[in-house]
Design brief:
Blueprint: H1 40-58, E1 67-76, E2 84-93, H2 99-112, H3 114-121
Helix pairs in contact: 1-2
């Protein structure tokens, strides 16, 4: 929900999500939105960071200074299809871990990460009017 305050019913988790000014360009993450709430880039990066940290610990590697940057785009379906799609690009900096060691762990984290799975495989959704 953009421009609202989604969260759990218990109010333990709540975020302010700024309404993007344009819906066919990357959503959030630019200077115009800084300080106005959590953006999709931060949410995707945090989710992948947590999953990769878990995968690193399972592989007996310390997650150390993993840094994840995300770019989120929202635009028309490529090739002229109808509707809109979400695209997420992640860049991971993992100092002191060789690329040949990091690559399979990144793939495993991508397969496990709920946000990455949602984008890659779609997420079931329901729609119902509020009572």
């Amino acid at each position: 929900m953009f421009g609202g305050e989604p969260g759990a019913d218990c109010a333990a988790v709540q975020w302010a999500l700024p309404r993007p000014r344009r819906l066919v360009s990357p959503v959030g993450g630019t200077g115009r939105d800084r300080g106005r709430g959590t953006n999709p880039e931060q949410l995707f990066a945090a989710c992948f960071h947590g999953t990769l940290s878990l995968v690193a610990r399972q592989a007996t590697l310390g997650p150390g200074a993993i840094a994840v940057a995300a770019t989120v785009g929202f635009g028309p379906v490529p090739g002229g299809g109808s509707g809109y799609v979400l695209r997420v690009d992640l860049v991971v900096k993992w100092p002191d871990i060789a690329p040949e060691i990091a690559a399979p762990l990144l793939e495993k984290a991508h397969a496990l990460c709920p946000c990455a799975r949602m984008v890659s495989h779609g997420a079931p959704a329901t729609l119902a009017p509020a009572p």
